[in-house]
Design brief:
The protein starts with 8 loop residues before the first strand and ends in a 7-residue tail after the last helix. An eight-stranded parallel β-barrel has the order 3-4-6-9-10-11-12-13, surrounded by six helices. It has a single domain, classed as TIM Barrel, CATH 3.20.20. Helix 2 crosses helix 3, helix 3 packs parallel to helix 6 and helix 7 packs parallel to helix 8. It contains twelve helices and 13 strands. The longest helix has 21 residues.
Length: 367
């Protein structure tokens, strides 16, 4: 009998994955300067789509102010649909489900990339070195951004993607609205926990509405979130459990917990040894599947992640180092979960991506 990770998995909406392994969404920094995919980036995805059941792309911004990275792709205009169509075909042709991740960087954007307009829920600067103080979005601008997520979803559907993932994690704009640290508004978009959740929930609603209008029932809509913030005041696990309850009231397909490790314990209280993913899983109460991510490097890690209770497990940096990671895990072959610069061409990793890995994620490259 095949191990659990190599068995098909069906979502409640009827979409079926050939296995339970997901390629985690990771920025490549390798698109062109105009928001389109390059041949090198498409080759990178093509090399990794052959083994996973579902592949979630790196972030796609939906309005110009939402751009967070160089070489990032854009989904805010119909003229980009042809490029997105080729992108979806590359991922899907070997049997993986293609999911386009959509987001807005908020205060984590940089002026030269976002048209010299860095925006957020409130005028609270990012903790990133060299960041600028953002401008608080107006009510009208908030509504425009919400609408843009629905339009980006429509474009993903037209382009042939099997789904979209709403990126409400990692300190980007959606999380900035939910966080009491970065959201100090006193209007309907801030203040109470319920008011801070209004923006994330409105994004979910408009994406789901677009899917209902333009796609069939098997179109996948996921939501990624960061369960906690270590800063004070910041998002607590209890805050996230409230948001989970609200999200699971909606016809989303899955939730995706953004974690450093699939088995990490509560961060805000070092005396609390509960495993965050298990707490979340208990809160969901089987209403939809949960994707776990973080720290899966070799096949044994994958087995432990599924034993922790996740329905699906995402593999990130290890798939950068080894495009055939799933196939090697299945065959019991040795996996080297680190990437050396001299292996970039063989492992089909864009040069720009390797440079960023060295800078931002040194544990992902060979010493």
């Amino acid at each position: 009998m095949n191990p659990v990770y190599d068995q098909p998995f069906s979502f409640a909406n009827g979409a079926t994955l050939r296995n339970r392994i997901v390629m985690a969404p990771m920025t490549t920094w390798s698109g062109d300067d105009n928001g389109r995919q390059t041949a090198g980036e498409l080759a990178y995805y093509d090399a990794r789509a052959g083994g996973v059941g579902m592949l979630i792309t790196g972030t796609t911004y939906t309005v110009p102010s939402g751009r967070g990275f160089s070489g990032q792709y854009y989904g805010g205009d119909d003229s980009f649909i042809p490029g997105l169509t080729e992108f979806a075909k590359i991922i899907k042709r070997q049997g993986a489900k293609a999911v386009l991740q959509i987001f807005h960087a908020g205060k984590q954007s940089t002026p030269e990339l976002s048209g010299n307009d860095v925006v957020s829920a409130s005028e609270v600067a990012s903790e990133r070195p060299g960041s600028v103080k953002p401008r608080a979005l107006t009510d009208a601008e908030i509504e425009t951004i919400i609408t843009s997520f629905g339009e980006a979803t429509r474009r993903a559907i037209v382009a042939g993607f099997d789904g979209v993932e709403i990126h409400g994690a990692n300190g980007y704009l959606i999380q900035q609205f939910f966080s009491p640290y970065s959201n100090q508004r006193t209007d309907r978009w801030g203040g109470s926990l319920e008011a801070r959740a209004r923006f994330p929930l409105a994004i979910a609603d408009v994406v789901l509405d677009a899917a209902k209008k333009h796609a069939d029932k098997t179109f996948i809509v996921g939501y990624r979130f960061s369960p906690e913030e270590t800063k004070t005041p910041g998002i607590t696990l209890d805050d996230s459990l409230y948001l989970i309850d609200r999200l699971t009231e909606k016809p989303l397909t899955y939730l995706h917990a953004s974690l450093n490790r699939f088995d990490q314990t509560v961060q805000r209280d070092k005396n609390d040894r509960r495993i965050v993913g298990q707490v979340i899983h208990q809160q969901i109460k089987g209403r939809m599947p949960l994707i776990g991510v973080g720290g899966v490097k070799v096949a044994d890690d994958l087995q432990r992640a599924f034993a922790a209770g996740y329905e699906l497990v995402a593999v990130g940096r290890a798939l950068i180092a080894e495009p055939q990671w799933v196939q090697k895990a299945r065959a019991g072959e040795k996996i080297v979960p680190f990437l050396a610069k001299e292996d970039c061409a063989k492992q089909i990793v864009p040069e720009k991506m390797f440079g960023k890995l060295v800078e931002m994620f040194p544990d992902a490259v060979a010493k």
